[in-house]
Design goal:
heterodimer; A: 117 residues; mainly beta; 6-stranded mixed beta sheet; 11 strands; B: 114 residues; 4-stranded antiparallel beta sheet
Amino acid sequence: GEDVEQSLFLSVREGDSSVINCTYTDSSSTYLYWYKQEPGAGLQLLTYIFSNMDMKQDQRLTVLLNKKDKHLSLRIADTQTGDSAIYFCAGRRESRFNAGNNRKLIWGLGTSLAVNP
Amino acid sequence: DSGVTQTPKHLITATGQRVTLRCSPRSGDLSVYWYQQSLDQGLQFLIQYYNGEERAKGNILERFSAQQFPDLHSELNLSSLELGDSALYFCASSVGSGRTYEQYFGPGTRLTVT
């Protein structure tokens, strides 16, 4: 089946680290993405990781991938109030039947991150 | 600014009506995706077009239809609207080159059906 699951809410204090977790069921997912949606805005791609990587770091963001457990996490260091948003995990499923440009993303429901001053 | 534009920003209409949402992809992007985001269903993929042709279909109702025009802009038509159709409708575009092909999202159209 195609499933991506995330916790719905996370609350942290400003300056702490946030860790948003995601689990997925489809082992054929080759790219895994994190998107951010700020209130009233569209989705913004934050970062992505290819399935043959364990970790990717980009400034305050660290993505960890455990392929064996099908677990993906996004760590935000020194969380700021401006990081308050909904964070979506998405996986791109590859299939020999999905040629060209009709691959689709499977999305989680999003984790709402609240950063308290 | 992702480069993807959507109009209108807000739309309020009554049940039974029909509306058209418009999306202009980023310059050079050939793929357009439509998503519906509601509080109880989360983000749902509706449909994808690539260079004018339908390429993938998700949870799109029969009352909904979409098309992509030769200039690559896309329209999502919603008819016989019901209260449950109230949601944010996002359009996204991508190059579709077979690499990571990030999807760039527009700001969304908020539809309220009363």
